[in-house]
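Obj: model holo form, ligand = zinc ion.
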Amino acid sequence: MRTPSKESDLWQVIGILRRFAELGDEEARRAIYGAFDRNVTGDNVNDADELIALDGIGGFLHAFTMLGDKQPDLQEWWQFDSWIEGLEERDGEAEAWAALQEAARLNATLAAWLAVREHHRANLKEKWANHRQSTPCMRFGEIALLVAESAALEWRENRGKLRSAGRWAKPATVKRAAAALAEETDGGRLNRWVQFFTTTPFPGDPNKLLERTYDEGEYVRFDAALALSRVSHPDVRVRALGLADEQGREVECVRLLESNFRAGDEALLNRLLDRLVSEDDRHWAVMSIRRIQEQENISDDLLIRAYEITPCSICRGGIVDGLIEESRLPAWIHEECEWDAYHSTREAVLELKARADRRID
Ligand SMILES: [Zn+2]
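Output (holo structure tokens):
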């Protein structure tokens, strides 16, 4: 804590300190409050969750002082909202609200924030109901127009729209989009069709997607690998094995194996993981391995390696959940996870222990 390191580490350190504080360690509690007051992670808003989980309304009110006399602000209301959710989760709705209302009687700023939250939630509810009526699903003609309009734009622009279009598209629209991609001759438009297929599996011959993995543009290759992660085809597997030999293409290789994994690939994947240095790359690769884990039976050594190298608490927890589900959580991981930075992982193994104890009784 005194030697600030990477942000992701700090969060995990605070998570672990909270565990000690919960067990009554006052020094750990002071360290968490001190970290919050100094804003060591640069993300006071999220760190407030730890204070609230630790001390309930006391932690909430401490976090709320961060807003000072600031009047309710729609820009920040969702953060305020998430603190309240944290409090409800910890103490139950009734108790949380009794404490909030009690505190609001003495604190006009808090009362104002609570009123704005109420108002905004009602508004959102209405908006959401309208949104669901107007389906988010685009027709083929609209998507083709978006593809054409986006062709010359910067990579990021409209990428989210195209990904969302793919996510919600009806089967008939996906079929027409696949035909359009196969016939497309313009590079800019083709890249946009590929973005559409990063969220829905491309049906048919993946040849054109595979070509994009040779492109010079880093972003073009990035989207192509995402799209191919959803395509199960022998040619995709062949390309994945080719990429395994190229330095710097590890993450793409793992992605291409997502839908083309075969028993025995664990050794290759382990070697790829060993080559990754950057935290982002490790995170991406482990996310792919988690998706494989959901579909396939992966051997323990690879899952343990992924567990060890991911920089992300949530991914680590996901791997542990999978191992628990398949009743093959190694004892040492079980023990270690009782002290994991992420509360949901701690709860998962404690629950498992409680179940085992009940069986013995
Ligand atoms: Zn993650």
